[in-house]
Amino acid sequence: MTPIVLDCDPGHDDAIALLLALASPELELLGVTTTYGNQTLEKTTANALRVLELVGRQDVPVAMGASAPLERELVVAAHVHGESGLDGPTLPPASTEPVSDDALAWLARVIDGAGTPVTLVPTGPLTNVARYLETHGTAGLERIVLMGGAIAEGNMTPAAEFNIWADPEAAQIVFDAELDVTMIGLDVTHKAVTGPGVQRRLRETGRVGVFVAELVELFTVYHRQTYGWDGAPIHDAVAVAHLLAPDLVETRLRNVEVERDSELCRGRTVVDLWHRTERPANAHVGVDLDTDAFFDLLVDRIGTVG
Ligand code: RIB
Ligand code: CA
């Protein structure tokens, strides 16, 4: 089993990533840390607790992290995920609370005590991960598999993907870490557009599959308006799926730098795909996805969650 921590901002696709992790015996979900991003920290934390309770996994600890970026103004993606951050399906309020430790203290304690190097799976802005690396370094960490960035166009701006755009300084700290980092960007996750066919397959798997399909339905509203798609790219679930079946995502070991000076290109991940510079490779960058295999894995695993 691979011990992981999901650092997330639920968020519709974060919620699906969390359910996929819970459904996968290959992974030992040590806990969840939350960050601002799709909504405020309070709302993303409440959503993480609600999703865990939906499937009877209140045993999984949730630790609250950053409420704002390292330096930038707080901007949340309510225009995509709604006022609650998880609009759409009916989901009762959580009856549980996060742990008393903040995310950094909780991460330090859990990583130190894990006995096996821990994989971090950030699926929101990278503020928590950057702060952790700056405070504790990479000891006890196996790798980072993050959802964020893009080789090509962005989604928050023409140049930048939201998670990186939200806190570009944090993202650069992560790419500068002397650690095995994998970047699952939009070039890959936009191949995971979950349309009516997959939504139908999810519904047929049972209660949790219906919940996931309802998340996708709401998440589709923004993507239909923006891209004309009849479905939503469940970005964060691809990062978890890559841990379960590495070959699903084709990656290239390349240099990635984050634009932090320009306003026009703030948060752009500049990926040196064709070795145009001498900059050293620092990340495995996703370039392609086996979409059918991804959806087969998702439907199969979601069907096993209670
Ligand atoms: O740009 C997509 C990413 O931003 C996803 O992780 C989504 O949940 C939001 O956090
Ligand atoms: Ca996210």
CATH topology: Inosine-uridine Nucleoside N-ribohydrolase, Chain A
- Distance between the ends: 20 Å
Query: Uncertain regions: pLDDT < 50 for 5+ in a row?
Result: none
What is the top-level CATH class?
A: Alpha Beta
Fraction of residues in helices? 25-40%
CATH architecture: Alpha-Beta Complex
Largest sheet: 8 strands, mixed
What's the Cα radius of gyration? 17 Å
Going across the biggest sheet, name each strand in turn: 3-2-1-4-5-6-12-9
Task: Bin the strand percentage.
Answer: 15-25%
Mean pLDDT: 98
CATH homology-level superfamily: Ribonucleoside hydrolase-like
H/E element order: EHEHEHHEHEHHEHEHHEHEEEEH
**Total domain modules:** 1
Overall geometry comes to: globular
Strand segment count = 12
Helix segment count?
12
* SS-based class: alpha/beta
Bound molecules: alpha-D-ribofuranose, calcium ion
